[in-house]
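Consider today's protein:

***
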Amino acid sequence: MKTYQVHLFDEEYLAPDFPPAEPVFLYGDKRYLNFLNLDCLHLKNSEYLKEAAKSNIEAVGIGTSDRQVELMYDLQAAMTEIKRLESLIFLPDEISAFTTLSSICSPQTNFFVDYETSPSIIAVLQHRNIKYYSHQNLDQLPNLLSNKDGKVIVIDGVYEWLGNIGPIHELIRIAKENECITIANEINSFGLLGREGRGFIDLLDIYEQINIEIGSFSRFLGGFGCYLGGKKYLISKIKENISNIIEPLPQFMMAVNLAALELIKQGKITKRMLEKLWKHSRYFITRLKQIGIKTSSETPLIVVSFNNNEEAETFKKKLFAEQIIVARNKERLRLCISIEHSKHDLDYTLGKIETIGKELGIIT
């Protein structure tokens, strides 16, 4: 836990735009619980990953070197082993990754996307032929898919503003029956689900059912950028489209990603760490429901829905007054549980949620 002496807060109830990455930090004489960060295993502060970055920078500096290509091959080899991918490419962020992916699709391609998919994916596709479906009502999806050509369906691992896992097997069945290209969205599941964080494709063993996948190193693995992986002919086509546009990640970033993958390969994302994280998550979700707060979450990304935006904002401000920082998106609040949050921290937060809920008349 770090002490922060900088001025973070301009108003009494205003959370900072760029708060510390620490799950718990001190400011002034107050101890804050930070539930904003999608870094459940707290790897962004890993000494192992810091040393990987430091060693690479000291050896070759910030820029590229003769070892750039070698490091890229090492990273690809590690990903191929962990994710069982035929081929892959690395991009600096989610927007550029999905923009790159959509570049191989014609203007006539129809994208079928869940209403709850990652905002970055929707941002890229909003000006394309996009059709929305609800994973809570899949009976309508076959009708949406009928009489459409060039069909691409996005299948999500974890919905980042619901905190649950969708009906993936059913979506794959529908995609297969309707001859859809399948894109697996591992942005919110790589590093969190599956064996040592290999993702939802690994968790459900559906490697052969997916054409291409997109995932993030920066959310749960403490690394940088995103990857696109899948069938070799698709990745080759993408590389042809962007060969003179996309610059590779800085070398030290690739070194950190490679080190993060070594944590998975060597089992250093330990069973103990994962058990603690999921045990605390289940405890928090169960207690929320006992208190009278509704949530459909089933992962360490715990989302609570309120009646409207104003109610959610008021609740967020009152939590902040109790040194609890959460994220808000419209009528929803999200708390990302970290292994750095103790059971006492969780109980303190649950107590304040119950008190505020009763004060606002949300809990009877």
About this structure: The mean pLDDT is 90. The chain is about 40% helix and 20% strand. The domain at 47-265 is CATH 3.40.640.10 (Aspartate Aminotransferase; domain 2). Residues 271-291 form the longest helix (21 residues).
